[in-house]
Write a structure and sequence with these properties.
Layout (H helix, E strand, L loop, with lengths): L2 E4 L26 E3 L8 E3 L17 E2 L4 H6 L5 E6 L5 E2 L2 E2 L1 H16 L4 E5 L6 H6 L19 H11 L4 E4 L4 H14 L3 E5 L13 E7 L4 E5 L1 H8 L4 H10 L18 H11 L2 H10 L5 H9 L1 H11 L22 H13 L1
Helix pairs in contact: 2-12, 7-8, 7-11, 8-9
Amino acid sequence: MMMTAVGFAQSNCFPLTFRTQSIDKTKAWGAKWVVSSSSSSSHLRPSPLSSSSTEAFHRTDYVQDIGKGVMSEESRKKKRRVFFLDVSPLCYEGNKPSSHAFGHWLSLFFSQVSLTDPVIAVLDGEEGNKRRRELLPSYKAHRKSPNPGKYSKRPHQFVEEVLTKCNVPVVRIQGHEADDVVATLMEQAVQRGYRAVIASPDKDFKQLISENVQIVIPLADLRRWSFYTLKHYQAQYNCDPQSDLSFRCIMGDEVDGVPGIQHVVPSFGRKTAMKLVRKHGSLENLLSAAAVRTVGRPYAQEALTKHADYLRRNYQVLALKRDVKVQIEEEWLVERDTSNDSQVLSSFFATLHG
């Protein structure tokens, strides 16, 4: 496997030469950026955004907004935090590539969320979804990739430059999606005694939530990042996150192109799926029980026995791997030098509007 880890920058600023003329500036986030002369950590202020929200994460009332006690509570914890930044989803507005979206969420992330805590950015590797596509051809088939011809560099290169100059290491593993790399590195960080925080709008990461693993998600309609913790998950679903993967294997994931059981058994709904998952704990336990005894109503019983392979395939597609051949480096876990942030991001936004 090949890993790309971009080191830390020493210079204060650099010129960005790519252009994003193809993006409609009146539609992409509807944001104008103002460089503040204040010496505070928040150097970039967004004007009000449009009300369109990120569609990759299911919005819930149980999300905790930043600025309402979460950060102060975190500061009292003994365990140090390390953030894992899932970069690719931040480069889109809906299904459309957007450099404005990347700059907007990165600026807020640095100024409101991670501050000086260590940040490890992860990008999808080349042919990262090949294994899942072979299992399920519809997997992420609708996703659009930025056209390299629209930039002076390949899309991931300008993202890496911005992150590197902001002293964020960037990891890309050939043949692996960012989700699997994040899951692998997250587990290593927790084993070292850190609290892992995954910054992403991707609901796939719900399966990783625990006492030591949180998610912080970008919510466009709130114009901020918001924490989503084990407490929030349990309040929303009344079960443990370990059940989330099993539930999604049954119901599918339209965003990722994974069809649920309702496509072959329309009467099999969310309530039935949640009830069975809560009772049996996992998909495999449920399928094993259904193979030897009655676990539900006739339609559910028939669906679980007749379409067991269908559901197990969904599991193979949706389950995050934690055995990618990558090792977390000690230098990635040091306090992040934020001195470059303002100049680098100012240059980035100036280039977008130039």
